[in-house]
Fold these 4 entries.
Entry 1:
Amino acid sequence: MKTNRQSFIHGAAILTVSLVIVKILGLLFKIPLTNILGGVGMGYYNTAYMLFSPVFSLAIGGLPAAVAKMIAENSALGRYRDVKKVFRISMVLYLLMGIAGTAVMVFSADFFVHVVKNPNAYWAVVAIAPTVLFGCIISAYRGYFEGLCDMRPTAVSQVVEMAVKLAAGLGFALWVMNYAAEQYELTGIVFGVVVQAPDQVGAAALPFAAAASVVGVSFSNVAGAVYLIIRRRRNDSITPEQRKTSPRPAGSRSLFKQLVVISFPICIGGFVLNVTSLIDLLSMMNRLNFLVREHSAALLEVCSGAIPAGMPLSDLPNYLYGCYTGLAVSIFGIIPAIAGVFAKSALPNIASSWARGNRDYTRRKIELVIRITALVTVPSGIGISVLAHPILSVLFSSRTEEVNIAAPVLAIMGIGVIFQAGSLLLFSILQALGYANLPVRHMAAGGVAKIVLNMLLMSLPSLHVNGAALSTAACYLLIFCLEFSALARITGMKFKFSNIFLRPIFAGILCGIAAKTSYGFLIRCCGKGLSVALAIGISAVLYLIAALCVKAVERNDLEMVPGGKKVTKVLEKMKLMR
């Protein structure tokens, strides 16, 4: 095997670097896009994703994780010809599922947007359909490289995708808005709609601008797929000599059956999760329309100062949903992505060590990845929660009304995101151990709890979309507890709760207090943007010190990170580590 293979920590470090770059580019995309489209336009944009997510999860099924698991196990046993065969079989399946998924998106678009009572999202739904096909191709290649513990192709392809998405998505959306303004000046008609006044141009153009930005997403997936295809052809991770000396491969039927057996429960789990999100959208829009219809006066009073002047009541449900998804969920999604980095890197390592029968090593690896994830996600979630309004105000400075709606939502989600990140990590670990069927039940239970709580909490005008945030937090808390209990039972591990949870939580609370307090002082003498940046920096430093003092960070954790031994020596001199 070539030296492309990386350790768990090394692979996680590579993915973390790419994640940071991707998230920065993502913010550079999402912030201007939200400022261009506003709450209403982001409602159309995110409605398209609500249909895309379950269709895409069903199209790719559990194949990415199944491919990575089978390739990791076969490469660990030196069966490199099986590795190649698994990839070829998965590629055929991906292409078929991708074509079918794209067709489903196109032909169900009209029905879907009318069911969710958001018909203006039709073109955005159609525009995102090709993403299913190219996303399937990308997943096949990523599963192949990740199974060989080579995270670099995944990391680079993610950056390529986001860079193209940034350029194409924003460029197309701006072009549509400018084109609409020009057409109004020339004809008074914008995309077939007679516009009576200049302030109505944006409303007429928003469905098409949202669709144009989604076209940029499809372009980005094409770019990512092209990169991975070229990458594998020029620098494969398996040499010709290894293929020649490896044992005779298993039959195609046998490998296909293994792929299906492994991927099916993962597929159902992903589908349940995404269908839950789709039902979540339906229940949210149902309750928001209910509030507008039955409690409009109370809702308008609660949202006073947070609704654009002149907005008709009929647009209010989509506006509130757009604030929820376009602003709060955009920030909320950063932390689960961090957990996804560790999960993606850990899965092939845990699968290969479990396949060899090395149970003690597997248990140590599991405890390590859980502890590191907690060290990152706990302070991040608490920090986002206490600085929700300042962060959103800086990022979306031209959308004051939307920020006032989204800030309380993000404050609640900041806590809930810790449990979401943890549950996603545990889901991946259970997959690696061959128990992918268990998280399906856990997700189904959490999904039912979320929908029930949505219907109850969002019926209260005082909560409106905040009720959805509370139900999200409760949903992932339930899933996390169920998955953690299952993991302990399967592995027989006796987790050290103080090391994994209590110490990071204690240090995280201190981090939150430092962030809130320092921002309160800094805002008196500095601008909002500088105050937020300094408050985050100060709280991060204090968190690191607190984590070291309470021994939440261990020597082995740092030494496994590239360059960690040098950091350890510096901390020893400072008497922060023994």
Note: The mean pLDDT is 80.
Entry 2:
Amino acid sequence: MAKKLDKVDVVIVGTGFSGGIPAAELSKKGYKVVALERGKDQDVTDFVGAKDELRYASRYYMQQDNSLSTITARSNTDEEAFPLRTQEENFEGTDVGGNSSHWSGVTHRATAFDFEARSITIEKYGEDKIPKDMFLQDWGITYDELEEYYDKFEKMAGTSGEEDPVGVPRSSPYPTPPMKETPPITLFKEAAKNLGYHPFQIPSGNISEQYENPDGQTINACQYCSFCMMYGCDFGAKSDPIVTVIPTAKETGNYELRTNSFARRVLHKDGKATGILYVDMRTGMEYEQPADIIVLGGYPLSNTKLMLLSKIGEPYNPETKKGVIGKNAGGFSSPSSTITGFFEDKKFNLAMGAGALGGTFSDLDSDNLDTTDLDFIGGGMVELRLRGEGPVIYNRVPKETPSWGKEFKEKSLHYANRGLFVVFKAASYGWAFNYMDLDPTYKDIFNDPLLRVTNRITDHDKKLEEFGIEKMTELMEEMGADIVENNGVAEEWSHQQGYGEAGGGVIMGDDPEISAVNNYSQVWDMENLFVIGASALPQKIQQQTATVGAFAYRAAEGMIEYLEGDGGLLVEPKK
């Protein structure tokens, strides 16, 4: 039987930005906050000297142990799903800081179109533009309403960037200057301008100069060491929760962090959440942590699984298309394309880099792109990134090159610093047949059902990807590449969860019939339960960290209003 602990004001599951931001904001207000993290504790000192490509980039040291819990995957409802056992298949962060501790640092905001994709599409193109079975939904909040929270997130994170010439309006500049423009970025920008686009530096959480944020936390300047994406930063130069919101929460004296604490259920009675049931992974002891407010601030897969296991909200049913929990699974097969260019007469320093170092443009994204005569909705961002190419996971050679032998060695050496790649990153929209539920066969270490993902690639996705390949090929040729190659369009989902970019499952909206949370991330069916993160996204956007951070700041504001007021829903549902 679980041991019942003393009640606190707030209990939060997760220590990434989704959990860390409300922890900092509520503890600063004097509320007693307990945070449950399934992984171990860690800080910047744990990463000193840890520039080990094999350990982190190939063996995924900072990802969860899939022998404890994972997901199962299938492409159609008539298939049996099977567990994804390796970290390469199911890439989900763990430990203090969550996915945000090893993210690349790319910090794009969502577009105004993303927030109102359905309304804008119908207004501009008519409802017939929306394919059958596509769940294109508005978010129940506009960009203008969320802009102040984006601004707050960027000031906390010290985001380095410059304004997108054709992007969404901003209330203030980025708090630190953009990262350095290196020769490959200059080449990319010049080619983009020649084609009529408006390139700019990628907004980055690998910040360009030392910065003290409004909470008094110092983030150091990026050293361009390349050990960034999939690594923790030993310089303290990445704006992650470990150097920002977690220290802020700890300094209040109102925050208790419990690591190795695996949340299993949201406990509830008479329509209100009462606490979290969790297991101490070191002792096997079960505990019940009561609280006035319960926050699920985990990865989308974890948030969705906890909601389903706890029997909160109506699970999505693909046959009736009713229900909301598990709906609009996104990001598992995003229609993105990569073009690689090889240069015979140019050499670059590709060993130097950072997770978000690069150039980008948004001329082909959302309503910047007129899709009247195109067979898809939306569009995509274009980017060239210089993450730093280590010898283990990067070894670009032209496709006809043998995979071993003398010619392979010669071309590996020749093209080691002559290959660049550009990416077209597109949104992944919700579909009636792409969803998450509980697997009827496979269990986790606690004998609870695994989360099952059903996902398939659509014709819409393929057309969007083909468009990206065409445009990126043109761009790479303008950059002067002698050999231009692409990976083609995927016909079927590879059954990989991939790179920690899942979304959906507990989606946001203004109508409880088609959404699980309101625009304060408050669960419609349970007013003192807040579910924060990319799980709220009705469609998987191109880069979601800044949006998740904005959601978290707005949710924290709502929680404070809830605790200081008379309770109830903070937003009335659509009539």
Note: The first helix runs from residue 17 to 28.
Entry 3:
Amino acid sequence: MAISDRVKTGPEKAPHRSLWKALGLTDEELARPLIGVVSAQSECVPGHNHLRNIAQAVKDGIRMAGGVPVEFPAIGVCDGIAMGHVGMKYSLASRELIADSCESMAIAHGFDGMVFIPNCDKIVPGMLMAARRLNLPALVVSGGPMMPGRMPGGKGDMDLNSVFEAVGAYKAGKIDDDCLNAVESSACPGCGSCSGMFTANSMNCITEVIGMALPGNGTIAAVDAARIRLAKQSGMRVVKMVEEGLTPDKIMTEAAFRNALCLDMALGCSTNTVLHLPAIAHEAGIDFDLAWVNEASAKVPNLCHLAPAGHHHVIDLHLAGGVMGVLSELYGRGLLYEDALTVSGKTLGEEIAVAKNYNHDVIRPFDAPYSATGGLMILRGNLAPDGAVVKRSAVASEMLVHEGPARVFDSEDAAIAAIYEGQIRPGDVVVIRYEGPKGGPGMREMLSPTSAICGMGLDKEVALITDGRFSGATRGAAIGHVSPEAASGGMIGLIEEGDTIAIDIPSGKLELKVDEATLAARREKWVCPPPNVTRGYLARYAKLVSSANKGAIVE
């Protein structure tokens, strides 16, 4: 019995069929599998503006394979537009809304299978969470990366991060109004997810290795006709998956998540993957241990330096062989679970076996990596007993080990103001707290302060730590997800101006160098600030959200 039979089959379902027919469906169509197609298309997000074309291609593929597509929408926040103001409080929180709304629509309408069409930061993990929760035959086909920008007459490619850093340069008096306008007008040339290895592209690439998307999903450009062909193939494939009974529980296993971390290390993905993978794993009933991150980092070398870590962009990665090209360097070395199943019906090993690394400048060989260890690192110590994360591949060598005085701010806004006013000096460790999942609420992404530090030329001299999170575009010694967060009584809430903070990224250490007696006295006096949001969705979210080390899931 098909799942959709509960909304279309038998005499008692005549009222249901009447409503389907009101939508234009015929008796012949109602005899076929109903496939939900959830598209996050909107005019709010450059990465999603073109998704109607992807959705149409998916629906064409479903029809070609004998299914009936039924499209419905999902929300999506543009992190770049939400950045640096109260809107960013809603970005991470929207992930749960996306998952919940997809669940609601799929079950209410009795779909036999699902195609999820995201592209940007929280929409990809939100839809993956829904896919595993629903456990219907399903796959993901994203909108693809943006092309990098280029200034008129310029030689170097740019992206959104270039604009944020230009603001820092402007504040430091290094560029004028005309130059700033030229950068902002050229950096983002059209549709697609921002062109570097930021959160959106990190998650879209990981979707391939986790087995929930066909090869090419993470790297085919938004403007490439191959993206439309991939969407049609995805539509055709999901109908076959319904026939085969291939569901996410057979794909999104612990092995798949460990494979995802291996790719993460080789690519140098966004720190946000360490927030989203545990949340997706939670839907699968898998206890994602942050120790897995450092285990993967210790054995998988960093093979790619895509922006912001280097000058290559995702389109360069695609031409070099894409995700499978990266995995081809890890293939056969005992690093991957190569028998893990994918939505193609093939194992990951079978997909990698036909792949190739075409450009050893973009994807370095396994034996000639950028570093022998992976792109991310979990740090622990008295300042982060439950962990903190840093994108080590984007940290200048001078800052891998650093010790300096704390400059303490109780909000991102206060920190940005101080940075722009020139109050931060070489050697400082900027501390931004009460910006975690509960304290923010919403765990704001902090590209503005890190980019300002870089734009002012301080990225090789200043570190930043926070219980908030960072954009995938962030570079420098930016350490986020400090857990427990300040609002939950974490040590980061006890730091005082001028305290010495020691950072040792290679050793995985993050320490506040203050004696225990002093800390105990501070803890006795500590009072959690009152919540800064008391109404609406964010107030409910703050009451239910878990710590960052658990993926900031709503429990």
Note: The CA atoms of residues 336 and 351 lie 13 Å apart.
Entry 4:
Amino acid sequence: MGYNDDWESLMNSVFGPGGRMRAGGTAKKEARPAEKPGAKPAAPKPAGSAPRAEAPDLNKALLEQQKTLDKLLKKQNEALRGQDASTRQALEESRQLLRDMEADGLLAQGAADIPAAQLGSFEGLAAEVKQTVLGQDDYVDALVRAMRRPFVLGTDGQKARNVILLWGPPGTGRHFALEETARRMAARGLLQSGQMARMDLALYPDPGAEKLFLQDLYAALNGPGEMVLFDHYESCCPAFLRTLASLAVKGAAPLASRYLVNREGILIDAGTALAAGAVSRITPRGKYLIFFSHKGREEMAGLLGAGFVAALGDVCQTRPFTAESLQALAARLLNDLARLCARQLKLTLSAGEDVRDYVAGQHTGKLGAAALSGCCERIFRALSEYCLRQDRFQPGTAALEVRDGVLCFSVNGSAPAPLADLLPAVWDGGTEEVRQELDALVGLDEVKEYVFGLADNVRVQKRRAAAGLKTASLSMHMIFTGNPGTGKTTIARLVARYLKAIGALRGGQLVEVSRGDLVGRYTGHTAPLTNSVIESALGGVLFIDEAYSLYRGEQDSFGLEAIDTLVKGMEDHREDLVVILAGYTREMEQFLTANSGLASRFPNQIEFPDYTADQLLDITASLAAARGYRLDDSCTFPLLGYYQRRQAADSRTAGNGRLARNTLEKAIYNQSRRLVAEPDAPLDLIQAGDLEFDE
């Protein structure tokens, strides 16, 4: 039988008469993962319909056809050697048909052009992945070995194909390397596709999320792809972790109730009904179960148990990037940038080692390799802006160089200029404006000094990162203590804006809450309520006023649960959340005893002193000016005497800043009544006779 006969027979086995797909389905196009360092895998798609009886047969049929296609491709590649030109042309046309099948989702991406000797084989796979995943050779070797293990040891029905832990520092390419490996395995026919389902276990922190967890887990295990990824297991409810441990260790997890699956793939609690087809357990369905973490197996054993850790088939660890690996990564990214500039901008990019080292120096512990990609993206945007300012694209040479730490460019020998000048000015969050507001506040010198010191630390850490040194994150959780009206809430609001402005926070929002926003009204309500508040504050500041009200003694189980949940949330999101607690000094001291880990989470405890009479006078004048009024000189001595008496008697109940505001409002009211009788008097002047004091 000739090649044409082979091809016709194969096509007839995939398609029925009239070009219709056999087995009653059509395949969807497969999306390729983004090829960027540090890129995250796509979120799992929700189940579109309930599993039908023919679905497993369809998947099996597609897999069998995949294998047959691979065999045909091998046969054609072997025949290419020693054939005449006409035969080679005919076979190349057949290969083009295979590429068309890739576009229709009937063949794994890249399979049509893969060398025949590598189809269905792991040979050379690690070396291939290392071409795009730089600086993590040991990790790639271990990852490919983990993927290969079930091919050597065999699989056991519905049990997990392999249970894998991928861990290491943030930004070291754990996800990206897996994406690249899966994509290339699919191209070789080792996987049906490079698709993978992902579950963020931080979304299921408490027992109240049980139905959501089971639904998402069922959809992930029954959806497309052969890998299920689990992130942030440290933040997951322990009961759900036990379910995952059963999947890994026993190959199945029994459900507390029986469920039906409707046409949309949604689990419906069947209760005690003896319904046909009810689901009473979940199995891994022969998929890879892959867990991500920044910690190793010892920490994992503490949450998931020693049995789970023993069931791990492979543990793969990334390492912090070395200077050499960062330079290699920067060089590759610059080469990609040069090709992009030539294609899109008609510019030939020229860059030396100084530019390579500049790009490599953008690496940070938090962003990792993604910071290098971001730097190259900014370079491209800047050069694009240069081209947009010209009448038309003109071919030329764009030379990059670093001068005194600043990345500069020149086109066709022009004078070098800072590249950043081409981009729109980056909004600094109003740093100077916030600083001026802080400076304008009366008193609070110690508080201001601390807040401005945070900015100094952020700048120094950025300089260390640029120099390739390790950075140290600074705990910015704070406790503000002091009497009412001493400026605690005002400072908290300004701190949120200031931390955003200096780049210490990505969001900068301030979420103000009290006990009622955190403590639930019934058992099981508090933890979800507190977690929802924490989620809303991520990237910004969570400000809890009168925080001592959360603890009303050892019998206050709801309050203690809120505190425990808060402490855990601070630990889970320590780089993306600042918590500020405020309250009276004595009460806050008692509050810190409610949880053994509470005091250690707040290294910055700042006492807000009571205002002096002179400071209250300045506050009154400042408030008046903000509202378009001014104080007559005759007001000075009466106000000073009044403020001295009130603060000396009881500053805690006097109100401090609120005392000044209330006094001014009474004066404005009295002045308006006076102006009715004195129409020619200045409208903005408050006189001594307008003052009214509560003694």
Note: The longest helix spans residues 55-80.
